[in-house]
Amino acid sequence: MNNIPYGRQSVDRSDIAEVTKVLRSDWLTQGPKIAEFEKALCAYTGAKYAVAVSSGTAALHIASLTAGLKRGDEVITSPITFVASANCALYCGTRPVFADVSPETANIDPEEISKRITRRTKVIIPIHFAGHPCDLAEIAGIARKKNVMVIEDAAHALGAKYKGSRIGSCKYSDMTIFSFHPVKTITTGEGGVVLTNSEKLYRALLLFRNHGITKDGSLMDRTMRGCGWYYEMHDLGFNYRITDIQAALGVSQLKKADQFVEKRRSIAALYNDAFAGNEFFDIPIEKDEAYSACHLYPIQLKDGCMKRRKDIFALLRNNGVGVQAHYIPVYTHPYYRKLGYKRGTCPNAEDYYRREISLPIYPDLKVAQARYVTDTIFKVCNRI
Fold this sequence. Notes:
Elements: H1 13-23, H2 32-45, E1 49-53, H3 56-66, E2 74-77, H4 84-91, E3 95-98, H5 110-116, E4 121-125, H6 136-146, E5 149-153, E6 161-162, E7 165-166, E8 175-179, E9 192-196, H7 199-209, E10 213-214, E11 232-233, H8 244-254, H9 257-275, E12 281-282, E13 290-291, E14 297-301, H10 303-306, H11 309-318, H12 334-338, H13 347-355, E15 356-359, H14 367-383
Parallel strand pairs: 2-3, 2-4, 4-5, 5-8
Antiparallel strand pairs: 1-9, 6-7, 6-13, 8-9, 10-11, 12-14, 14-15
C-alpha cells in the first residue's frame, strides 16, 4: 500500500473548472469572486459579515488588531495549537498567556482561563482543537463578566457545531477565524477568513486587510467625494488580500463542506470501532453538546506505550502510515523560552503532547486504507 498522509486536500473537476473560469476572466484579484465567497461563508455559518484574507494567520492578525490589542495587554489562549494562535498577540505587542487544557479534548479549560484573567486581559482566543468545539457558552460567560473579547480560532472546525449552532456563527464570540490550508475542511490553497456579527468590527477588518485604505465616500474628505481615482489610507493596514482564483476554489469547495465533514466522521467512526477498549492508547471523545468536524484523529498513548512514542511514530511512518503530532506546546518553543516562558506552565498540555499521535483522516481516505492504518498500528504497538 502506498504512503497514506495524515491529511490532504480533495479537489475535483468541478473545482478545477471554477478556477479555470476565473483564469479566463478579467479579474484575477480584487474582483467579484471574493464577495461571492464571503457571502457564501455567511450563508453557511450564519454570521452577518465575512472578510476573506490570504491565510488563517492573516485572519488572526487582523482580528487581533481589530480587537484593539496594544502593548501591555494580554491575550489568553491554549498551548495546544499551531504557533499562529499565540503569535498574533505578539504581532500586536501583546503578551500571550497560556491556559491549560482539558485532558479529554485538549481544548482550553474554562476554569484555567478564569485563573489567568487579569485587568490586562483584553482577548480570549479559544482553539477548537481537532475540530471539536470548545465549551463556548462557559467561555463567553467569563468574557462578559470580565468585559473581554472572544476570538474563536476555528481553523480546524469549519462544519462543526456547538449546541446546534454552526461554529462561525459568532453566537458566543466577537469574531471567528477559519483557515483554508489544504489539510483543512475546505481549501483555497492558502487562505482564511474572519467572521463577525458587528458592523463596526467588519469595517475595521476591511481596512486592515487592504493597507488601511478605504474608498467609502462616507469616510473620506467631503471635497473629494465623487472623484473616481480618490482613496484614503485611514490606518496602518496590510496586504492580506485573497485572490479571485482562490475565492473561486473556495466557493466550489464550500458547496461540499458538509459532505467532507461526513466523510471525516465516517472514518473516525471506523477508527472508534476498531480501537474500542484497546490496551495501547485512548481515542478521542465527542461531548454531547458538540458535533466535531474531525479535522484530526488524535490518539493518546497509555503509560506503557508513551515511553516508546518516538519508536511507534517512526515505525508507523516506515510502514506507510503518515502520522503527525499535534502540537508541541507553543510556550516550549525556543523563541517563547527566550521571552521568559517556562516548561511546566500547563501540565495537562505537556502530558497530552507526550502521548499524542494524529492518524490519517481526510475525505478521500478509502476504507481499505483506514483498515490498513488500524491493522498497522496494532502490529506496531504489539511489537514495541
